[in-house]
Specification:
Blueprint: E1 2-8, H1 29-42, E2 52-59, H2 67-80, E3 83-93, H3 104-109, E4 116-122, H4 126-132, H5 138-150, E5 156-162, H6 169-182, E6 186-191, H7 199-205, H8 214-229, E7 234-237, E8 240-242, H9 249-255, E9 260-263, E10 268-270, E11 274-278, H10 282-290, E12 296-300, H11 303-314, E13 321-322, H12 323-330, H13 332-342, E14 350-353, E15 356-359, H14 361-364, H15 367-374
Parallel strand pairs: 1-2, 1-9, 2-3, 3-4, 4-5, 5-6
Antiparallel strand pairs: 6-8, 7-8, 10-11, 11-12, 13-15, 14-15
Bound molecules: iron/sulfur cluster.
Length: 377
């Protein structure tokens, strides 16, 4: 039950809030694809023949690849790994790359095994999109969804961002209902966060943009949960909502601590005992793979690391922290630590169902703080 993540490290322009690894210089895109194909073969043993159930193209902007390149990457993965029969293959796209009237890219994509599309909509409001420095406009966002549906892609995710200074409550509600009305079956909605080394961080520091209004973020989160719950969405992870049958298997695997291989610059891999991550530099990634000496770092995970990771990820999901899993995998003394630390959060922030400890809606707003309270230091 393993997954493969493929990082495509190019974007047309830098969104102001983004701290993912990408470059706006794609002059070595061809070299990158070659390096990636080679990395697939170099790392064919990483998953030890475990069955792969999901492949996810993220980034960066995977829709900057040509369809033939995407197809070749999938076929090379298929030639080097044991793939399951019911494979979920997701491609992240930016709306402006799939908004043309002729459906060209999407029609060609249908001939590959990509069966799920994740669209970086973020907002349908032009002022909001401009604030984020997105490369698309409202009209392209709408057309991107229509084009997906018209070309036969119904397993779609749409990403949204809330809590921006430019997003009014009314527009936030409209953003949500646009997706609900189109029948988009999966929505990932993230609160705007300010990461170091981003343009947004600089704007806030020099006073051009006001700091994030946490009251507004909380109000938008409440509207999000209510609107989607009322429309049959399952709130299965703090930021993720799906109609029945559309829960993302790839992301769920991360949250359930399944093994995964990450390919491409900056991509992380996990095999139960170690975590490793590729160099976050396109030139170095390409050049080192050409020399058969991939550049990556590796960390051997201690029992404490694994416990902390389990708490951080499981607490964010609707399945919560499973006490049986905790006992079986981490032993009595860690279980005791958890039960002691969790006491003060019971009722207000955490509820208990059978042996599972699950965040309440108000607890979801403070998930990271609560998780760090439960950590082993
Ligand atoms: S398109 Fe995505 S990866 Fe690229 S800069 Fe914007 S948010 Fe970051």
């Amino acid at each position: 039950m393993a997954g493969i993540y493929v990082h495509i490290p190019f974007c047309k322009q830098a969104c102001h809030y983004c701290n993912f690894h990408f470059s706006t210089n794609n002059s070595r895109k061809k070299d990158f694809v070659e390096a990636l194909l080679k990395e697939i073969t170099l790392r064919r043993d990483y998953l030890q023949n475990e069955e792969v159930q999901t492949i996810y193209f993220g980034g960066g902007t995977p829709s900057l690849l040509r369809v033939q390149e995407i197809d070749k990457i999938i076929k090379t993965i298929s030639g080097n790994f044991r793939l399951g029969g019911d494979l979920e293959i997701t491609l992240e796209v930016n709306p402006d790359d799939i908004a043309s009237k002729d459906l060209g890219f999407l029609t060609d994509l249908r001939s590959t095994s990509v069966n799920r599309i994740s669209i970086g909509i973020q907002s349908f409001d032009n002022e909001d999109l401009k604030f984020m420095n997105r490369s698309h406009c409202n009209e392209q966002a709408l057309r991107a969804i229509e084009n997906c549906l018209n070309s036969g892609y119904h397993n779609i995710n749409a990403d949204l961002i809330y809590g921006t200074p430019t997003l009014t409550d009314k527009n936030w509600e409209q953003n949500l209902y646009r997706l609900i009305d189109y029948g988009v079956p999966h929505i990932s909605a993230y609160a705007l966060t300010v990461e170091k080394k981003t343009a947004l961080h600089t704007f806030i520091r020099n006073g051009t943009v006001k700091p994030i209004d946490e009251t507004k973020v909380a109000a938008h989160f409440e509207m999000l949960v209510e609107s989607l719950n009322n429309n049959k969405f399952i709130h299965y992870e703090i930021s993720n909502f799906a109609l029945k049958g559309f829960i993302s298997r790839h992301n769920s695997n991360y949250w359930k601590s399944k093994n995964y291989l990450g390919l491409g610059p900056s991509a992380h891999s996990y095999n139960g005992n170690t975590r490793q991550w590729n160099v976050a530099n396109n030139h170095r990634y390409i050049d080192q793979i050409a020399k058969n000496t991939p550049d990556f770092e590796i960390e051997i995970l201690s029992l404490e690391n694994k416990y902390n990771e389990y708490i951080l990820t499981s607490l964010r999901t609707m399945w919560g922290v499973d006490l049986f899993y905790l006992m079986e995998n981490f032993g009595k003394s860690i279980e005791k630590h958890f039960l002691k630390q969790v006491q003060k959060h019971i009722d207000n922030s955490i509820s208990i169902t059978d042996k599972n400890y699950i965040l309440t809606n108000s607890g979801k707003l403070f998930a990271d703080r609560i998780a760090s309270d439960l950590f082993l230091n």
